Amino acid sequence: MRAKMAGFPKGVGTKAAIGGVVAVTILVVGVSIGRQGFGGKAAPEAATAAETAAAAPSASAAAPPHSPAKPAELRSDQGMAVDPNALRVKRVLKIDGPFRHGDYAWDENGAPKAGRVIITVDLRAQTLSVFRDGYEIGAAVILYGATDKPSPKGAFPITQKVADYYSRTYNNAPMPYAQRLTSDGVFIHGSDVQWGRGTHGCIGVPTPFAQKLFGVTKIGDLVVITDGKMLDVSQAKVNG
Protein backbone atom coordinates (compact mmCIF):
# COMPACT_ATOMS: atom_id res chain seq x y z
CA MET A 1 0.00 0.00 0.00
CA ARG A 2 1.39 3.30 -1.03
CA ALA A 3 0.03 6.63 0.00
CA LYS A 4 0.72 9.92 -1.67
CA MET A 5 3.60 11.89 -0.34
CA ALA A 6 3.48 15.56 0.09
CA GLY A 7 6.19 17.27 2.07
CA PHE A 8 4.37 17.74 5.30
CA PRO A 9 4.50 21.10 7.00
CA LYS A 10 7.23 21.50 9.55
CA GLY A 11 5.03 22.83 12.28
CA VAL A 12 6.08 24.50 15.44
CA GLY A 13 4.17 22.40 17.89
CA THR A 14 4.82 18.78 18.56
CA LYS A 15 2.12 16.27 19.19
CA ALA A 16 2.84 13.13 20.92
CA ALA A 17 2.35 9.59 20.93
CA ILE A 18 1.27 7.64 23.98
CA GLY A 19 -1.27 5.80 26.03
CA GLY A 20 -1.63 3.55 29.03
CA VAL A 21 0.45 2.79 32.10
CA VAL A 22 3.93 1.56 32.64
CA ALA A 23 4.52 -0.87 35.45
CA VAL A 24 8.00 -0.66 37.03
CA THR A 25 9.18 2.86 36.24
CA ILE A 26 6.86 5.76 35.88
CA LEU A 27 8.66 7.71 33.29
CA VAL A 28 7.34 6.71 30.00
CA VAL A 29 5.85 9.31 27.72
CA GLY A 30 6.20 9.89 24.10
CA VAL A 31 6.09 13.08 22.31
CA SER A 32 6.49 13.02 18.62
CA ILE A 33 6.19 15.89 16.23
CA GLY A 34 3.04 16.87 14.53
CA ARG A 35 4.95 17.71 11.37
CA GLN A 36 2.33 15.58 9.82
CA GLY A 37 1.41 14.25 6.73
CA PHE A 38 2.30 11.60 4.34
CA GLY A 39 2.59 7.90 4.21
CA GLY A 40 4.37 5.59 1.90
CA LYS A 41 5.98 2.24 2.32
CA ALA A 42 7.41 -0.21 -0.05
CA ALA A 43 10.42 -2.35 -0.52
CA PRO A 44 11.92 -3.47 2.79
CA GLU A 45 15.49 -2.54 3.56
CA ALA A 46 17.27 -3.56 6.69
CA ALA A 47 16.90 -5.77 9.70
CA THR A 48 14.55 -7.77 11.84
CA ALA A 49 13.75 -11.26 13.07
CA ALA A 50 16.45 -13.67 14.18
CA GLU A 51 19.09 -10.98 14.70
CA THR A 52 18.91 -11.78 18.36
CA ALA A 53 21.01 -14.65 19.65
CA ALA A 54 24.26 -13.95 17.88
CA ALA A 55 24.08 -10.17 18.08
CA ALA A 56 23.11 -9.51 21.68
CA PRO A 57 24.21 -10.92 25.00
CA SER A 58 21.62 -13.02 26.80
CA ALA A 59 19.17 -10.98 28.85
CA SER A 60 19.55 -13.52 31.63
CA ALA A 61 23.33 -13.18 31.85
CA ALA A 62 24.47 -11.74 35.14
CA ALA A 63 25.66 -8.15 34.97
CA PRO A 64 29.22 -7.46 36.13
CA PRO A 65 29.48 -6.06 39.67
CA HIS A 66 28.76 -2.33 39.97
CA SER A 67 27.48 -2.04 36.40
CA PRO A 68 23.87 -1.14 35.65
CA ALA A 69 21.64 -4.14 34.97
CA LYS A 70 20.72 -4.56 31.33
CA PRO A 71 16.98 -4.00 30.80
CA ALA A 72 14.93 -7.07 29.96
CA GLU A 73 14.53 -7.55 26.23
CA LEU A 74 11.00 -7.44 24.87
CA ARG A 75 9.61 -9.00 21.72
CA SER A 76 7.84 -6.79 19.20
CA ASP A 77 4.46 -7.85 20.62
CA GLN A 78 5.45 -7.00 24.21
CA GLY A 79 5.66 -3.20 24.01
CA MET A 80 4.86 -1.56 27.34
CA ALA A 81 2.00 0.87 27.65
CA VAL A 82 2.74 4.46 28.64
CA ASP A 83 1.61 7.03 31.17
CA PRO A 84 0.87 10.27 29.28
CA ASN A 85 1.51 12.33 32.43
CA ALA A 86 4.98 10.96 33.04
CA LEU A 87 6.85 13.56 31.00
CA ARG A 88 6.23 17.27 30.94
CA VAL A 89 7.21 18.71 27.58
CA LYS A 90 9.00 21.97 28.29
CA ARG A 91 10.25 22.95 24.85
CA VAL A 92 9.82 21.97 21.22
CA LEU A 93 12.00 22.79 18.23
CA LYS A 94 10.91 25.43 15.76
CA ILE A 95 11.07 23.93 12.30
CA ASP A 96 10.13 26.03 9.30
CA GLY A 97 9.31 24.87 5.80
CA PRO A 98 8.41 21.40 4.55
CA PHE A 99 9.74 18.36 6.41
CA ARG A 100 10.44 15.65 3.84
CA HIS A 101 12.13 12.26 3.70
CA GLY A 102 15.81 12.73 4.47
CA ASP A 103 15.19 15.86 6.57
CA TYR A 104 16.08 16.21 10.21
CA ALA A 105 16.66 18.91 12.82
CA TRP A 106 19.04 18.89 15.78
CA ASP A 107 19.54 21.70 18.30
CA GLU A 108 20.74 21.18 21.87
CA ASN A 109 21.20 24.90 22.57
CA GLY A 110 19.27 25.89 25.68
CA ALA A 111 18.50 22.29 26.63
CA PRO A 112 19.87 20.73 29.83
CA LYS A 113 23.25 19.02 29.37
CA ALA A 114 22.01 16.05 31.38
CA GLY A 115 18.64 14.44 32.05
CA ARG A 116 16.48 11.53 30.99
CA VAL A 117 16.39 10.95 27.24
CA ILE A 118 13.13 9.71 25.73
CA ILE A 119 12.68 9.01 22.02
CA THR A 120 9.22 9.04 20.51
CA VAL A 121 8.12 7.73 17.14
CA ASP A 122 4.78 8.45 15.46
CA LEU A 123 4.30 5.98 12.63
CA ARG A 124 1.32 7.87 11.21
CA ALA A 125 3.21 11.18 11.01
CA GLN A 126 6.39 9.32 10.02
CA THR A 127 8.48 11.27 12.47
CA LEU A 128 10.81 10.64 15.38
CA SER A 129 11.51 13.10 18.17
CA VAL A 130 14.21 13.15 20.87
CA PHE A 131 13.67 14.73 24.28
CA ARG A 132 16.17 15.38 27.08
CA ASP A 133 14.58 16.33 30.37
CA GLY A 134 11.45 17.40 28.47
CA TYR A 135 13.32 19.52 25.89
CA GLU A 136 13.09 18.46 22.27
CA ILE A 137 16.64 18.35 20.88
CA GLY A 138 16.11 16.44 17.64
CA ALA A 139 13.48 15.44 15.08
CA ALA A 140 13.60 13.47 11.85
CA VAL A 141 11.46 11.93 9.12
CA ILE A 142 11.65 8.14 9.34
CA LEU A 143 11.28 4.91 7.41
CA TYR A 144 9.18 2.24 9.11
CA GLY A 145 7.95 -1.31 8.61
CA ALA A 146 6.49 -2.42 5.31
CA THR A 147 3.01 -3.97 5.36
CA ASP A 148 4.28 -7.53 5.81
CA LYS A 149 6.76 -6.52 8.52
CA PRO A 150 5.15 -3.69 10.51
CA SER A 151 7.00 -1.73 13.15
CA PRO A 152 5.92 -2.58 16.70
CA LYS A 153 3.96 -0.22 18.94
CA GLY A 154 4.52 0.43 22.64
CA ALA A 155 7.48 1.46 24.79
CA PHE A 156 10.78 -0.39 24.43
CA PRO A 157 14.09 0.17 26.25
CA ILE A 158 17.30 0.34 24.25
CA THR A 159 19.12 -2.92 25.02
CA GLN A 160 22.12 -2.81 22.68
CA LYS A 161 24.12 -0.18 20.80
CA VAL A 162 26.50 -1.02 17.93
CA ALA A 163 27.92 1.82 15.83
CA ASP A 164 29.02 -0.40 12.92
CA TYR A 165 26.34 -3.11 12.65
CA TYR A 166 25.36 -5.37 9.74
CA SER A 167 22.20 -7.44 9.43
CA ARG A 168 22.72 -11.16 9.82
CA THR A 169 19.27 -11.79 8.36
CA TYR A 170 19.15 -9.53 5.30
CA ASN A 171 22.27 -10.01 3.16
CA ASN A 172 24.64 -8.27 5.53
CA ALA A 173 22.77 -4.97 5.02
CA PRO A 174 24.53 -2.07 6.80
CA MET A 175 22.70 -0.65 9.83
CA PRO A 176 24.95 2.18 11.06
CA TYR A 177 24.51 3.46 14.62
CA ALA A 178 22.12 0.62 15.43
CA GLN A 179 20.17 0.70 18.69
CA ARG A 180 18.25 -2.49 19.48
CA LEU A 181 14.67 -2.20 20.72
CA THR A 182 13.36 -5.78 20.62
CA SER A 183 14.69 -9.30 21.00
CA ASP A 184 13.34 -10.22 17.56
CA GLY A 185 15.50 -7.69 15.76
CA VAL A 186 13.87 -4.24 15.64
CA PHE A 187 16.40 -1.40 15.78
CA ILE A 188 16.62 2.32 15.23
CA HIS A 189 19.46 2.81 12.74
CA GLY A 190 20.85 5.00 10.00
CA SER A 191 19.20 4.60 6.58
CA ASP A 192 18.87 6.22 3.21
CA VAL A 193 15.50 7.78 4.02
CA GLN A 194 13.61 8.13 0.75
CA TRP A 195 9.90 8.14 0.00
CA GLY A 196 8.54 4.78 -1.10
CA ARG A 197 11.03 2.74 0.91
CA GLY A 198 10.25 0.71 4.01
CA THR A 199 11.98 -1.59 6.49
CA HIS A 200 11.49 -5.03 7.99
CA GLY A 201 10.09 -3.37 11.13
CA CYS A 202 13.06 -1.19 12.05
CA ILE A 203 12.91 2.59 12.41
CA GLY A 204 15.24 4.10 9.81
CA VAL A 205 16.53 7.66 10.22
CA PRO A 206 19.03 9.70 8.18
CA THR A 207 22.52 8.43 9.02
CA PRO A 208 23.94 11.78 10.25
CA PHE A 209 20.92 12.04 12.58
CA ALA A 210 21.43 8.41 13.69
CA GLN A 211 25.00 9.30 14.69
CA LYS A 212 23.84 12.25 16.79
CA LEU A 213 21.11 10.14 18.38
CA PHE A 214 23.61 7.37 19.16
CA GLY A 215 25.75 9.94 20.97
CA VAL A 216 23.06 11.04 23.44
CA THR A 217 21.41 7.74 24.38
CA LYS A 218 22.38 5.00 26.80
CA ILE A 219 21.25 1.44 27.42
CA GLY A 220 17.84 1.53 29.11
CA ASP A 221 16.59 4.77 27.54
CA LEU A 222 13.01 4.42 26.37
CA VAL A 223 11.67 4.56 22.84
CA VAL A 224 7.89 5.05 22.58
CA ILE A 225 6.27 4.05 19.28
CA THR A 226 2.65 4.90 18.53
CA ASP A 227 0.41 5.31 15.52
CA GLY A 228 -0.96 8.82 15.80
CA LYS A 229 -1.91 9.14 19.48
CA MET A 230 -1.28 12.72 20.50
CA LEU A 231 -0.27 14.52 23.65
CA ASP A 232 -1.13 18.16 24.30
CA VAL A 233 2.06 20.20 24.30
CA SER A 234 0.35 23.57 24.08
CA GLN A 235 2.20 24.85 27.14
CA ALA A 236 5.64 24.00 25.78
CA LYS A 237 7.94 26.82 24.71
CA VAL A 238 9.23 26.94 21.15
CA ASN A 239 12.98 27.08 20.60
CA GLY A 240 14.26 29.87 18.40
UniProtKB/TrEMBL annotation:
Residues 57-80 are annotated as: Disordered. The chain crosses the membrane at residues 12-33. Belongs to the YkuD family. The active site is at H189, C202. It comes from Sphingobium rhizovicinum. PANTHER family: L,D-TRANSPEPTIDASE (PTHR30582), L,D-TRANSPEPTIDASE YCIB-RELATED (PTHR30582:SF2). The keyword Transferase applies. This is L,D-transpeptidase family protein. Keywords: Cell shape, Cell wall biogenesis/degradation, Membrane, Peptidoglycan synthesis, Transferase, Transmembrane, Transmembrane helix. The keyword Transferase applies. It holds the Pfam family YkuD. Pathway: Cell wall biogenesis; peptidoglycan biosynthesis. Residues 117-226 form the L,D-TPase catalytic domain. It comes from the Bacteria. InterPro entries: LD-transpeptidase (IPR050979), LD_TPept_cat_dom (IPR005490), Transpep_catalytic_dom (IPR038063).
